[in-house]
Amino acid sequence: MALNPQVAASSGFRRRPGPELLTGDPLALLAFIRQAMEDANEDETGPALPLPVVVDVDTSGVPCRLYATKADAPVLVYLHGGGWCYGSIETVDRFCRRVADRSGCAVLSVDYRLAPEHPFPAALLDVDTVLDYIRKSGTGLGVDPARIAIGGDSAGGHLAAVAARRQRDAATPLDFQVLIYPVIDPLLSSESYTSLGSYGLDRSSMKLAWETFIPSAADRMTPDAAPLAADLSGLPPALIQTAEYDVLRDEGADYADALLAAGVPVVHTRYMGVSHGFARKIGTIDDARVAADQVAASLRAALTF
User: What's the domain count of the chain?
Assistant: First the structure.
């Protein structure tokens, strides 16, 4: 299928770094990318859907934003993408609003610490803190601490996959996981890196993201970094969404297959004609709204028991 023209059009909203940044200080380039993503966010994601509850909260020192339409609802803990180095609560705000509205579940979006200022395992520890807070104090947030899902896109999908396994190992299993084009393979070994590197995300940018997040090559091969290095049995059921024109496409599919082989129920949907990052662009890409609604329907089926 050809690349959706909406994808190409949406890429025009974001400023691109000049040659002086590409060849200069890496921290200056990172600062530029962070700001460019925030500056383009409203054009990419559209107007904010009003909800009864949209409130910034502190969960034992980790800032989050809660979206809810009713009290005592199940909760999706959501982790934004951005190569563990950029992105924010704001860049997934419209996606989280739509999921909360369509699912009837609360969504708690996590402003986890970013690399390189806070390298591995800081982000994972923040997720652990948030999940522990919900279990102990979720009723104070107006959510049901007995029904918890976790999800995220890209690097956030990676954190969600690892957190689901860590929670299983801690005997506090989660009920569901939503992985949107998740980062899985620190070796960048899948064929899609070779065939799809001209559609935005490429091997060199992912290599830099991994090295920035986890400077130690040895640490990148541990289960807390490489989800396929872990025993996957007993993990919560999963919805995995991948994109046709995304270098992460094959590793997301491989993870879906590995979960199935371990006996974990999985729905894997490949969205055709779109590239990495499409799902948060609610305002400009039709399939982003379809993806959000699939997430919402899956949460309703998994958590409204």
Answer: 1
